[in-house]
Amino acid sequence: MQISRYHGLGNDFLIAFAETIPSQAPALARRFCDRSSPWGADGLVFGTPGTQNQYMFSLFNADGGRAEVSGNGLACFGHALAKKLSVDDLSLEVDTTAGPRSIKVDGAANQDQVMATVGMGKPQKGPDFAGLNLDLAGLGGGRMDSIDLGNPHLVIEVDNIDSVDLAQVGPAVEAFFMPTGCNVHIVQAQDANALTMRPWERGVGLTEACGTGATATALVAHRWGLVGGEVAVSMPGGVANITVEGEPTYRCRSTFETTFEVTDG
Q1: Domain with 150 in it: what CATH number?
Q2: What is the pLDDT of residues 128-187, one digit of tens each?
Q3: First to last CA, the chain
Q4: Which domain covers residue 9, as residue numbers?
């Protein structure tokens, strides 16, 4: 099986194209995404024939769990398709388990670094967090809200993002949402156009960036009146640009790293 490695702002994915999703896909994700392996990544993506569109995007997180959608994963998937199809400035729609998503890639097919814009779908009501006590996670009484972009997110406002140990806070907060789980993000507003955000991703843990998480954070911050309709979201891996009005879009840089052959047995 041929696998290519891409990352969107450090949020890295292994991408393979196949006629069908292998029956052992969860085990393959755990094997290939393990950071102690020669590969290591946040998720394993399979591109297969779609039903509504030519391609279907299917993501398995590092723990083997199926993820509904991913902003950075889709950006990288669009980049991989541009290379596969040898199409410059690719624009298309792909199927996901959360519904169709648009991807626009700005750059030549042979470029190893491009900009990609992903349509994130219509935001929905997020998971119920009534009864969640942030004191137990060491966050005090911070403002929080939830939203769903095909996958669930909880956004928590903090005064000093650098003082929060998200490796401890993330799993403590996510435990409230088990067994389904939830992506957990902390955010600090910088000004009316900029946010600083750190993600804890369901099925992965700490990541350098999270596209759906950055979009969810921008939408919630806009709901709170902290930012306008165009938002720059700074994450450990870099800055993404979010449009929150209408159907939200997520724009980031996608980088191709390498391609290798692996056995799927």
Answers
A1: 3.10.310.10
A2: 999 998 886 777 667 999 999 999 999 999 999 999 999 999 999 999 999 999 999 999
A3: 10
A4: 2-117+252-261
